[in-house]
Amino acid sequence: MFKKRRSLLFVGGPVLLLALVVTVSVSAGTNRKGGANAIPAPAVPNAKAIKAKYGGQSITFIGDSVGGGHTRDMALATRFTKATGIKVKVVPHPTASDASYSQLARVFTSHGSSFDVAMIDVVWPGAFAPYLVDLKPKLGKQAKLHAAGIVANDTVKGRLVAMPWFGDFGILYYRTDLLKKYGYSAPPTTWAQLFAMAKKIQDGEQASNPQFSGFVFQGNSYEGLTCDALEWIASSGGGQFVDGGKVTINNPKAAAILTLFQKNIGVTTPRGVTSYQEGEAHTAFVTGNAAFMRNWPYAYSIAADPKQSKVVGKFSVTTLPHGPGGKPVGTVGGWQLAVNKYSKHQDAAIEFVRYMTSPAVERFDAITNTNVPTIPAVAKDPAVVKANPYLKPQIATVARVTRPARYLGTHYNEGSKEIYQGISQILNGASANSVLPSIQSKLQQLVK
Amino acid sequence: MSSVATPVPPTGRRRRRSKLQRRQTRLAWLLLVPSLAVVAFVAIYPLGKTVYQSFTNQEFLALEPTKWVGLENYRELLHDTVFRHAVWKTIEFTLITVGFEFALGLAIALVVNSSFKGRGVMRAVMLVPWAIPTVVAAQMWKWMLDDTFGVVNDAGTRLHILSHSQAWISDPSTALAAVCAVDIWKTTPFVALLLLAGLQVIPGDLYEAAEVDGASQLQQFRKITLPLLAPAILVTLIFRTLDALRVFDVFYVFFGNRPDTQTMAIYNQDTIVGDGHVGYGAAISVAIFLIIALFVVIYVTFMRVTED
User: Fold this and answer.
1) What integer pLDDT is reported at residue B9 of this predicted model?
2) CB–CB of B193 and A272 under 8 A?
3) What is each CA distance from A33 to A69, A77, A123, A167, A366, in whole angstroms?
4) CA distance A292 to A191
C-alpha cells in the first residue's frame, strides 16, 4: 500500500470538467436578446456641447436586469458614449428589488461614490432623498413633460431627487387560443373565475403537456410578492396594508383572498410558484406552459418576440381580476433615475439622466421593451400604442394601488419584508388567520 | 518561524543559552510583527468593532446619530423567536449534513485508497462537485429540482420512482432535505479527500503484520485504521461543522430570505443589509460567534480526551 502512493490529485481532469460545467450552466441563463421591435437607440440632443464640457469622464450606472432591460441599457449607454465621450459603465442591479435597495443603502451609508446614476423603485425616494442630488435646477423643465403624479412622488421636501424613467402596473396576460379552445369568450373578471378557468384549461392541457399550469405569478418571498398580494387584497376590498396611517392588513377580506390563493398553490399553479420571481413567471408563459400570468408590462415585449416566445399572436392582456365586491386594481411600480450625492461626476451623470428620461428614449423603451412611458405625450404616440396594447384606455385607466412607502419611510424595506415573508408562509401552508395578526403587529411597530 | 520561537530546553550552559535565547526571542517577535499586524487588522479589529457596534443602535440611512444602548440588543435577542428558529434550523442542517458527509466520505476514502485501475482518474473525477463554485452548483440544482421543468422530477416520474412532480425547494416539507442533499453532494468529496490524506500516512507494514497475525479485515479496520485515522477524522469534523454552521450560499440561492428556511447567517445578513439594523445585526453576529466557539470548545475538549 505504501509504495503505491501516488500524487493525490490529477489536476488537469477536474479543471477541464469544471470549465465545461460552468460554461454550460452559465450559457443556459443568457439567451435573452433584443425586443420584439428593434429600432435604433435615439440620438443625443446637444451632444457637442456636452462633449466639450464633460467628454472623457466616466460614470457608473446601476441599471436594469429584468427582461430586455439590460440590453436596452447597453444600447442607450453605447449611443450616449459615442455621442458625448462620457464613458458609461452599466452594472445590472439584483433582480429582486429589495436586494437592490439594500445594495444602494449600503453605498449611501458609507458615503460611497461607486456609482453615479442608479435606477430606483417608485417606493424609495423617501428613504434615499438625503443621499440624492436635487435635479430641479438642471432637469426641472424636462420633468414638466412627465406625469405630474410621478414627479410629485419623486419630489421630497421640494427637491426633485429622481426623474421618472418608466412606469409599471400589474396586468393579466392570457392565452386567447386556449380560452377559445375551452369555450370561454372573455378573460376572467374575478379571481374565482380565473382559478376555475385555469383549472379547466390545465386539466385539458396536461394530457399532452405535463409541465402545463393554469396560472403563474410572483410568489417568491421578495418585494414582488408584496406587489402581487397588494393587488389580491385591494381588489377584494381588503385595503392597501396601511390606510390613512392605520395598519389594516389583518382583516377578513384579506384572509379570504389569501386563503383562496393558498388553496390554489400546486392545484392551478405550479407548486414551485412560491419561488417564482418575474423571470420564472414570464419563462413559463412564453414557453407556452401557462394559461394566465400576472406580470408587469415589460413581459409583453418578450411574449411578442418570435425569437423568445412560442405564444406570439396567441395571447392578450387585460386588467387583473377582482375579489367579491371589489374592483380591478394594479400595483403602482416603476423606476426613476437618481444621481448619487457623493458622485464625483455629478454634471456628467445629470446629462446621462437627461438623455435617458427624454421623450425620444422613453419612446424607444416603450416600443422595444413595452415599458410604460411616464411622459403622457409618448404614451399617445401611435407607434407606442401599437406596441403596447395595455395602453388602451380600458386597461390603462385601472385603479392604481400603492405600497405603503409613505407610512414606512426609511423602514420601507423592513415593512415590506414583514408583509412578503408572512404571505409567503401563508402560500406555503400556514393559516392566514394566524399569520395576519403577526404581520399587523410588526407593521404597527414600524409605521410612524 | 515556529521553530525559532520554540523554547530551548534548559541545559548546563545556562547563561550563554539564555543570552542566545533572549536574542532568538527578540528575533522571533520581530519576525512575527508583520503577521501579528495583519491578524490585528483583518481579525481583531473587525471583531472588536462588531462587539462595539452590538452595544449601539447604529442603522443604515439613520436620521439620528448612533447612540450607546448597552445590553439592549442582547436583551431583545433573547426574545427573538426568528433568531431562535434560525439557530435550530442551522444546527439541524449541520447535524444531518456532517453526519452523512462523514459516513459517505469515509466509505469513499476507503474505496479510493485501495488499489485498482484508473484510481488517479477516479480521485480527480470525484472532486468535481467540490470544485464548482457553490452558488453555481446551487443554481444548477435549483433548476434540476424544479417541479415543472426540472430533470430530477422528469427522470423520477418516467422511471416511476415518483408518482407526481414534487416541488422539492418550494414545499416546506422537503425544503431542508433538498438543501441538505445538495450540500452532501457537494462536500462529501472534500471530506473523502481529507480522510484519504489521513489514510495514506498509515504505514502499509502495519497491515502486513496484522495479516501475518491472522487479523480479519474488520479487525484491521477497527484496531489499525480507525485509531490511526482519529486525528484526521477530528480535523475533518471540525472543518465541516464550522462550515455548516456558517452556511449561507446554498440557502440564499434556494430560498432567498424565506422565513421558514433562514439560517443564522442569512438572518444576520438580512438584519444588517436588508433592514439596515447594524447594531442589532452586530449582536446577532456576536451570538453566532459564541455558538460556533462553543462547538469548537466541545471538539477541542473531545480531541484532548482522545489524545490522552
Assistant:
1) 53
2) no
3) 10, 16, 29, 22, 16
4) 12
Shortest Cα–Cα distance, A256 to chain B (Å): 22
Q: Are residues B40 and B108 in the same domain?
A: no
Q: Which residue of B has its CA nearest to A25?
A: B140
Residue A337's Cβ-count burial label (10 Å; 0-12, 13-18, 19+) is: buried
What is the Cα–Cα distance from A160 to A352, expressed in whole angstroms? 16
Q: Set out the domains of chain A in order of their start, with CATH numbers.
A: 47-169+333-397 (3.40.190.10), 171-331+401-446 (3.40.190.10)
Instruction: Tell me what pLDDT residue A39 has.
Output: 84
Within 8 A by CB and 6+ apart from A177, the residues are A314
Q: Which residues contact A97 (CB under 8 A, 6 or more apart)?
A: A121, A222, A223, A224
B10/B144 same-domain check = no
Structural domain that includes position B159: 72-307
List the single residue in B with minimal CA-CA distance to A9.
Answer: B124
**What is residue A322's three-state secondary structure?**
strand
Residue A13 pLDDT: 43
CA angle A351, A33, A21 (to 5 degrees): 115
Cβ–Cβ of A414/B203 closer than 8 Å? no
Task: Name the DSSP class of B260.
Answer: G
CA nearest A64: which of A381, A371, A330, A387? A371
Residues B16 and B117 reside in one and the same domain: no
Q: Which chain B positions have a beta carbon within 8 Å of A25's beta carbon? A: 136, 139-140
Is residue B210 domain-resident? yes
For residues B109 and B79, state if they share a domain.
Answer: yes
Contacts of B60 in chain A (CB under 8 A): 105-106, 108-109
User: B297 and B193: one domain?
Assistant: yes
Predicted model pTM: 0.85
Closest by Cα among B240, B274, B245 to B259 = B274
Establish if B82 belongs to a structural domain.
yes
- B186 and B46 in a common domain: no
**% of chain B at pLDDT higher than 70:** 93
Same domain, B41 and B184: no
Q: Report chain A residues whose CB lies below 8 A from the CB of B193.
A: 8
β-bridge mates for residue A334, sequence order: A167
B164 pLDDT tier (thresholds 50, 70, 90)? confident
Instruction: Give the pLDDT band (50/70/90) at residue B14.
Output: low
The number of residues making up chain A comes to 448
CATH number of the CATH domain containing B266: 1.10.3720.10
CB contact under 8 A, A1 and B204: yes
Look at residue B60 and tell me if it is in a domain.
Answer: no
All three cell numbers of A381: 404616440
Measured CA angle at A418 (ends A413, A419), to 5 deg: 95
* DSSP type of residue A268: T
Note the pLDDT of residue B305: 67
pLDDT at B6 over 70: no
Q: Which of A25, A106, A222 is facing B273, going by the closest CB pair?
A: A106
Same domain membership, residue B186 and residue B109: yes
Count of domains observed in chain B: 2
DSSP H or E segment with residue A263: helix A252-264
Q: How far apart are the C-alpha atoms of B204 and B224, rounded to whole Å?
A: 11
Task: Identify all chain B residues contacting A428, using CB atoms and an 8 Å cutoff.
Answer: 170-172, 258, 260
> Is residue B64, in this structure, part of any structural domain at all?
no
Which DSSP symbol is given to A66? S
Which candidate, A379, A345, A341, places its Cα nearest to that of A359? Answer: A379
How much is the pLDDT for A261?
98
Chain B residues with beta carbon closer than 8 angstroms to that of A222:
256-257
> Quick check: ipTM above 0.90?
no
Ranges of chain A whose pLDDT falls below 70? 1-38
Q: Which three cell numbers stand for residue A184?
A: 370561454
Average pLDDT, chain B: 90
- Judge contact between A271 and B171, C-beta under 8 A: yes
